[in-house]
Amino acid sequence: MEPVSAHMTRDLLVVAPGDSLGDVVSRMAARNVGAVLVLDGERLAGILTERDILRAVAGGLDLTVPVASQMTHNPDTIESSDSVEQAA
Known about the structure:
alpha+beta; four-stranded mixed beta sheet; elongated; 3 helices; single chain
């Protein structure tokens, strides 16, 4: 079984919970990524995806709000040594 590490990237876009949604959207577009990790210090606090942003915009949310208000908190994670089957 092939490990997740064979398919993952290590050049991730990381943001802070207090960063504004608009700033993060701009950074995502510049890097051409659909999701960012949200770190509180060195702890994974959440993930923000294009879907989260779409919901915020569709709801008329002001893009000055902090990422923490729109992210998915405490996402499930796996280890890079886990198999792709486990990840799926």
